[in-house]
Write a structure and sequence with these properties.
Layout: H1 2-81, H2 86-104, H3 110-177, E1 181-191, E2 197-200, E3 208-215, E4 224-233, E5 249-252, E6 255-258, E7 261-267, E8 272-279, E9 287-295, E10 298-307
Length: 308
């Protein structure tokens, strides 16, 4: 019985030791599990922070890309509107394109990109100020140019008006310088045997046509020798002329035509009376005749007479 009691006591002691060992193991397992849980939570926290950081960096990279693209468009606009700065703007544009390639690729550093982007933005602001200054100068020059053009246009208009007035005065002087006639008369003359003449309107008896007139005083006309031409037109419009070739023609009113008689005078700006005859070369037809007087290429008088 005693041996049996000792055996039971020994078994109980062994069982207690085993239980204690199991409890220790369980406690260690709980601690280890707790550590694993804590480590897992920390890892998840780090992953979340890393994800947030990546998202923020990606967003910042996208913003940098957007800023670079906007600056690229602004540089293009400035280069198109300002040829004076085109070379400098093109150089900065090349830098922006390089940074934009880096921002789109994998090999990039956001801090470096941000810093260089800000540098380019500062440079661009300087160009904007410079361009604004140039635009202001151009605006002033444009306004001054407009004023100058207006003044030139006004002076040109005045000059044209004066030119027209001078031309008008010149025309008036030219017209005023033409010789003028008065008491212009033409008639048929019957030649008597003693070479004297008597006025007649009988066509068969007319030996010559006499034209008489007075050239008036004109102080504007240039004095000197002048030819006075007479054109006698028959009832059917034919010019009475000794010859019909160019030797019997003269220039008048912008054309060249035949004359009947001519006479050279010495004009000294004073009034003088002239008589110019046309001698008969053929029978005179019955009807009304027109007589025209010319000097200096213009007509200075007209008259008519009739034969029956």
């Amino acid at each position: 019985m005693e041996n049996k009691g000792e055996t039971n006591s020994t078994s109980e002691k062994k069982g207690n030791k085993t239980n204690k060992l199991l409890i220790v193991v369980i406690l260690l397992l709980f601690c280890f599990c707790g550590y694993l849980i804590w480590q897992n939570l920390e890892l998840q926290k780090l992953l979340e922070q890393g994800s947030i950081a990546y998202t923020e960096v990606s967003a910042e990279r996208d913003q940098v890309k957007k800023d670079l693209e906007n600056m690229l468009a602004q540089y293009d606009e400035m280069a198109a509107n300002n040829e004076e700065l085109s070379e400098e703007l093109q150089a900065e544009r090349t830098k922006i394109e390089t940074l934009l390639k880096q921002a789109k690729g994998k090999n990039w550093t956001i801090h470096k990109l941000r810093k260089e982007t800000e540098t380019l933005r500062t440079i661009m602001k300087g160009y904007v100020v410079q361009i604004d200054s140039l635009n202001q100068v151009n605006g002033r020059l444009t306004a001054e140019n407009k004023v100058v053009r207006t003044e030139l246009s006004s002076e040109k208009s005045k000059t044209q008006d004066l030119t027209k007035k001078n031309e008008g005065l010149s025309d008036l002087v030219t017209v005023a310088s033409y010789l003028k006639t008065s008491a212009l008369k033409s008639h048929g003359v019957r030649i008597k045997s003693n070479n004297t003449g008597k006025e007649t309107d009988r066509a068969k008896k007319v030996g010559k046509v006499r034209t008489q007139f007075t050239i008036l005083k004109n102080s504007i006309t240039v004095p000197g020798k002048k030819w006075v031409y007479i054109r006698i037109l028959t009832p059917d419009g034919k010019v009475l002329s000794e010859k019909t070739d160019d030797s019997n023609k003269f220039d008048f009113n912008g054309v060249r035509g035949l004359y009947s008689s001519k006479k050279q005078i010495e004009y000294n700006n004073q009034q003088q009376t002239l008589t110019i005859d046309w001698k008969k070369t053929e029978d005179f037809p019955i009807g009304e005749y027109n007589v025209e007087v010319y000097a200096d290429g213009v007509d200075i008088g007209k008259t008519k007479f009739s034969l029956k």
